[in-house]
Amino acid sequence: MTERIGAPGTGVSRREFVAATGGMGAVGLAGCTTAFETDQTTTTTNDVGATTADLPETSPPEVVNVDEQGGAVTMKSQPAVHKPHPGDAMGGPVELPRVWAFSADDGDPSVPGPILRTTEGEDMAVTLDNTDGKRPHTLHFHGVSKKWEDDGVPTTTGIRVDPGEKHTYTIPANVPGTHIYHCHYQTQRHIEMGMWGIFRVDPKGYEPADKEYFLGFKEWDSRLSRQMAGEDVQYDPRNRRPDVFTVNGKCAPRTLHPEDGSPIIVEQGDTVRLHLANGGYMSHPMHIHNHRFTRVEKDGGTIPEAARHEMDITNIAPAERHTIEFEADADPGIYLMHCHKVNHVMNGNFYPGGMLGGLVYKEAMGTDIFKQLMEYAGYDG
């Protein structure tokens, strides 16, 4: 049984969670060739050779400390089934029958992909292993300054990683902050299929907050996923119609699940630091209830003290990254964090759902309302 509780980062242990909830009582009874890109690969080929039963299900994104691995990490992508909300509550179930999920080393596949974390001044050797793949891929890292051939764009570097191949990119950790990575081959489809993740460079002498979490936001047009699973639907990237809205790959209420979801778990008096990244194609104004926060970084750049101010909503454009900080000084309870484009906080026609998560005080975990929320989220204790 996993020890991971809450969003990726520095949450509480399972033992602390069980102690705070009193065991949850009865809750949980509910269940290199040419570098130029063409569209021929993905417009004529899907993943119907593998049935849903043959494919793994995605796991929540994990934090990979690349420094602890000698500065090296191997990334793979594989078809998988992704269930943003597998339950019946709040407009579920919501399923993407086919995604292309990144995994790191021997870890589980996830969308978004693993969170790669390193330290300023280090180099990462990132190997894209496509030996078992069925289509070309690349890796492009935002934020840091790297050599031309490591930019990950096949059209301008002449390098792509075809099926059966491997390629190692050297990614210097020379710009501290929170960044993203993604496949840059047929980008309009490959990101839509899930090929993106967060990349964090801690500055030298970094002082972590009491609680620190990573949250990735994305909207999806499920037609592409369903097309790649063999359904008779057409996806048009010029006429995109998002219908699934996720936080770290999950829709509410699954976002509140302490193991599969990404609740932000705090204790009163904590300093809280959230690294927010947008992997979608639309902007998302993210709002936290009953807490005012300060944006301290944007796209890896430190915001000067004189330019900082308190706010309760931060609008994150596609590929942007915002790091925000606040004190957990509210009345201990359960508060929402959600996109304020309210139609993004829906599962189909059901409200609430979608791009909505929760800020949960440990002191409130023993309440009846928290138990009810865990039942909605499908947590079985």
UniProtKB/TrEMBL annotation:
Region (Disordered): 43-62
Biased composition (Low complexity): 43-54
Superkingdom to which the source organism belongs: Archaea
GO terms assigned for molecular function: metal ion binding; oxidoreductase activity
Annotated ranges, domain Plastocyanin-like: 110-204, 246-348
Keywords per UniProt: Copper, Metal-binding, Oxidoreductase
Name the record gives this protein: Multicopper oxidase domain-containing protein
Species assigned in the record: Halorubellus litoreus
